[in-house]
Design brief:
Distance between the termini: 23 Å
CATH superfamily of the largest domain: ANL, N-terminal domain
Structural class: alpha/beta
Strand content: 15-25%
CATH class of the largest domain: Alpha Beta
Strand order of the largest sheet: 12-11-8-6-7-14-15-25
Shape: globular
Number of strands: 32
Bound molecules: 5'-O-[(S)-ethoxy(hydroxy)phosphoryl]adenosine
CATH architecture of the largest domain: 3-Layer(aba) Sandwich
Helix content: 25-40%
Radius of gyration: 24 Å
Length: 630
C-alpha cells in the first residue's frame, strides 16, 4: 500500500439552478444525510417500505462484522417490484423499454408486454428444469432478450450470471464453471459496426469442459442463414418461449436469497463471483436510481452501459424498472454510423437523463463539438458519469457542450461489489470538477490511512466505507475468504482498493486503483488474467502487464514479455500474441502495446514489481526499490 502523499487541488466549482434542489426527491443533501446518520435503520426502513413485500421483514439489518443481513425474513420478488407493481398501478401501457438496433430497427415494450415476455421466458426455463437457486449464464449482445432473460431468472429464483458479450471462450468458460451454470442463454451473433460477429462458436468452445451445462438456449438473429441448432443440447430461444405458458407467478424469495452472481476482475488470476441478494440489492438500487437520477414519471432515461456489467444490472435493468421509468438502450457503439448517432438519439427519444462513461465523453471531446451541436439536446435534465475518474477537462466539456451549462453532472463512484452508488454529488449541490462528491445519504465513505484514520484534506489515502449498506455484496461465490479480505485490510472499514483525496468541503476525488487492476475504458481488467493469457502462448516464458495513462480510455494495457528460448521477437509474433489474448479473454483485455524484454524487475522473493515497470515507462521515480533483486 502507498504511503501518504499530497495532491494539489483546484477550488473551482459550479452551482446548479436552485430549482433542481427544490423539486428533487432528495431535497437538501445535508438534511437528508443528517437524518440518515441519526438513525440508519429508520432511514432504510422508510425506503424499503416504498416497495412491495409479500411478507414484511422482522428487522431492518443484522450486522455481525463482516457479515450483514438486510430486511431479515422479509419475502419479496424483485420482478414483482419492477413489473407487476406498475402493471397493477396504472402504468401497464407506459413504455418500459425502447431498444434501437444498428440498422435503425426499433423495438418497444410497455410494462405489460415486458411482464408477459418475462413470464414466458421464465416458464421456458422451468421446462428446461431450472429451479430456484440454479445458476443460469447469460452471454448475449445488448438486445431486449438479454434483459428479459435476466428478469426471467429473477422471476423463478434462478441466479443469473451475466457475462459480457465481448469476452472470449476461456474467460467465459471460467465464469460458467465457476458458477456451475445449468443453462446458458446466448445468441448466434452480435452486430457491431455493420458486421455480424458470430458468438455461438465461442459458447461451443466454452462449454467443452463445463459439465454442469445441460442446455444452451440460442436466440437466432440471422434470418437469411440461420445458424444450426444441435438438438441434443440446444434449443431455439423463441421455440422455447412459444411453447411455454404466459402466466408465471413470481417465486417468493427471501430477502437474503441470492439474486445474481457477477464476475469481476481480481488481483489474482481468477475472477471473483460477486454475490448480490434479492432484498438489499433491490432496495439499494431503487433508492439510488430515485435520488441520484431524481427519476420522475415523465423522464426518459438512457444509460449507455451493457447489462453485462454491474452498471447495466443496477442502472439499466433493476433500478430504473423498479421506479417504473422509461429506459432507452442501443446496441450501437457511440460513434456508429457517425459521431452524431448518440446525440440524434437524445433528440429523437427526448432523453432527459443520460448516464455514460468518461471514456465515451473523452472520445466525443476529441471528435469535436460539431457533432452534438447538430442535434437539439434541450430535453436533457441530468447528466451522469461512471466507471473511472471524470477528469476536470472532461467534466467541463460534458457540462458545457452537452448540458449547456444547465444540467447537473452526477459523477457516481461505486463498484460491482457495492451494488449501488456510494459517492456522488447529489443534484442541487455545488459541483467541483474532478471530484465525484460526498457519501450519499445511506453511506459512510471516507479517505483514510492504512490504520483507518481519516486523513486531512489534500492528503491522499485509501477510499473506504464504514458500516454495512443494503446492496453490499454478501460473499464472493465459493470463496468467502476473498470476501472477508475487503473488510480485514483496513481495521473497521471496507477497503475498496482505490486511492482518493478530499478537498476542504469534504468532496472526494478518486485517483485510481491501488492494486493490480487496470481500468480500461471503464472496464476492470486484472493484470494477472492478462499475464496468464500471455503465458499460455507457447512462445512466452514470462509476462508482466501494467496500465498506462491514455487520453481517451483512461488507461491502456502495456505488456512486457520474455520469450522462451528458440523464439525470436518480431511484429508477426506480436500480432500472434495479441490474437491469442483476444480469443482467450476477449477484445477488451487486449494489450495496446507489447515490448519484448530480456528481464523483468522482481523482488528477491520473485514477485514482479509492476510499479517499477510503470515508473520507468512514464519517466518517473520508481520510489522505494530496496526489495528489488539485482
Ligand atoms: C472505478 C463500476 C472514479 C474505481 C461501477 C472502482 C470510478 C472501479 C468511478 C469499480 C468514478 C467506478 N470515479 N473511479 N465515478 N466509478 N470507478 O466494479 O476504480 O466495474 O473501484 O464498477 O471502477 O469498477 P466496477
Amino acid at each position: 500500500m502507498a504511503d501518504d502523499f499530497s495532491v494539489k487541488l483546484t477550488e473551482k466549482y459550479y452551482t446548479p439552478d436552485p430549482s433542481y434542489r427544490q423539486n428533487s426527491w432528495i431535497g437538501d443533501y445535508q438534511e437528508a444525510y443528517d437524518e440518515f446518520r441519526k438513525d440508519p435503520e429508520a432511514f432504510w426502513d422508510r425506503v424499503a417500505r416504498e416497495l412491495h413485500w409479500f411478507s414484511p421483514y422482522a428487522k431492518v439489518r443484522e450486522w455481525k462484522y463482516p457479515y450483514a443481513r438486510w430486511f431479515v425474513d422479509g419475502k419479496t420478488n424483485i420482478t414483482f417490484n419492477c413489473l407487476d407493481r406498475h402493471v397493477q398501478n396504472g402504468l401497464r401501457n407506459k413504455v418500459a423499454l425502447i431498444w434501437k438496433g444498428e440498422d435503425d430497427t426499433e423495438r418497444i415494450y410497455t410494462y405489460r408486454q415486458l411482464l408477459r415476455e418475462v413470464m414466458r421466458v421464465a416458464n421456458g426455463l422451468k421446462t428446461l428444469g431450472v429451479e430456484k437457486g440454479d445458476r443460469v449464464c447469460i452471454y448475449m449482445p445488448m438486445v431486449p432478450e438479454q434483459i428479459i432473460s435476466m428478469l426471467a431468472c429473477a422471476r423463478i429464483g434462478a441466479v443469473h450470471s451475466v457475462v459480457f458479450g465481448g469476452f472470449g471462450a476461456a474467460a467465459l468458460n471460467s465464469r460458467i464453471t465457476g458458477a456451475e451454470a445449468k443453462v446458458v442463454i446466448t445468441a448466434d451473433v452480435t452486430f457491431r459496426r455493420g458486421k455480424s460477429i458470430p458468438l455461438k462458436h465461442i459458447i461451443e468452445e466454452a462449454i467443452i469442459n463445463a459439465p454442469s451445462v445441460e442446455h444452451v438456449v440460442v436466440l437466432r438473429r440471422e434470418k437469411t442463414q440461420p445458424v444450426e441448432i444441435h438438438k441434443e443440447m440446444e434449443i431455439d430461444f423463441y421455440d422455447l418461449v412459444h411453447a411455454a405458458g404466459t402466466e408465471c407467478e413470481p417465486e417468493v424469495m427471501d430477502a437474503e436469497d441470492p439474486l445474481f452472481i457477477l464476475y469481476t476482475s481480481g488481483s489474482t488470476g481468477t475472477p471473483k463471483g460477486i454475490v448480490h441478494t434479492c432484498g438489499g440489492y433491490m432496495v439499494g438500487t431503487y433508492y439510488t436510481t430515485k435520488t441520484v437520477f431524481d427519476i420522475k414519471d415523465n423522464d426518459v432515461y438512457w444509460c449507455t452501459a451493457d447489462p453485462g456489467w454491474i452498471t447495466g444490472h443496477s442502472y439499466v435493468v433493476y433500478g430504473p424498472l423498479s421506479l417504473g421509468a422509461t429506459i432507452v438502450i442501443t446496441e450501437s457503439p457511440p460513434d456508429y454510423p457517425d459521431p452524431g448517432a448518440y446525440w440524434r438519439m437524445v433528440e429523437e427519444f427526448g432523453v432527459t437523463i443520460l448516464y455514460t462513461a468518461p471514456t465515451a465523453i473523452r472520445m466525443f471531446m476529441k471528435l469535436g463539438e460539431q457533432w452534438p451541436d447538430k442535434s437539439n439536446l434541450s430535453s436533457l435534465r441530468i447528466l451522469g458519469s461512471v466507471g473511472e475518474p471524470l477528469n476536470p477537462e472532461a467534466f467541463e466539456w460534458y457540462y458545457r457542450v452537452i448540458g449547456k451549462n444547465r444540467c447537473p453532472v452526477v459523477d457516481t463512484w461505486w463498484q460491482t461489489e457495492t451494488g449501488m452508488h456510494m459517492v456522488t454529488t447529489m443534484i442541487g449541490e455545488r459541483m467541483y470538477p474532478g471530484f465525484a462528491g460526498k457519501s450519499i445519504p445511506g453511506v459512510v465513505a471516507d479517505v483514510v490511512d492504512k490504520n483507518g484514520t481519516p486523513v486531512a484534506p489534500g492528503t491522499g489515502g485509501f477510499l473506504a466505507i464504514r458500516d454495512p449498506w443494503p446492496s453490499m455484496m454478501r460473499t464472493v461465490y465459493k470463496d468467502d475468504e476473498r470476501y472477508r479480505k475487503y473488510w480485514n485490510t483496513i481495521p473497521n472499514w471496507y477497503a475498496v482498493g482505490d486511492l482518493a483525496v478530499k478537498n476542504k468541503e469534504g468532496y472526494i476525488m478518486v485517483l485510481g486503483r491501488s492494486d493490480d487492476l487496470i481500468v480500461v475504458a471503464g472496464h476492470n481488467i486484472g493484470t494477472a488474467e492478462v499475464e496468464s493469457a500471455l503465458v499460455s502462448h507457447k512462445a512466452v516464458a514470462e509476462a508482466a502487464v501494467i496500465g498506462k495513462p491514455d487520453e481517451v480510455k483512461g488507461n491502456i494495457i502495456k505488456a512486457f514479455v520474455i520469450l522462451r528460448v528458440g523464439h525470436t521477437a518480431s511484429d508477426k509474433l506480436k500480432n500472434e500474441l495479441l490474437y491469442h489474448v483476444r480469443i482467450t479473454l476477449g477484445p477488451i483485455a487486449m494489450p495496446a502495446e507489447i515490448d519484448f524484454v530480456a528481464t523483468l524487475p522482481k523482488t528477491r522473493s520473485g514477485k514482479i514489481m509492476r510499479r517499477v515497470l510503470k515508473a520507468k515507462e512514464m519517466g518517473m521515480d520508481p520510489g522505494d526499490i530496496s526489495t528489488l533483486d539485482d
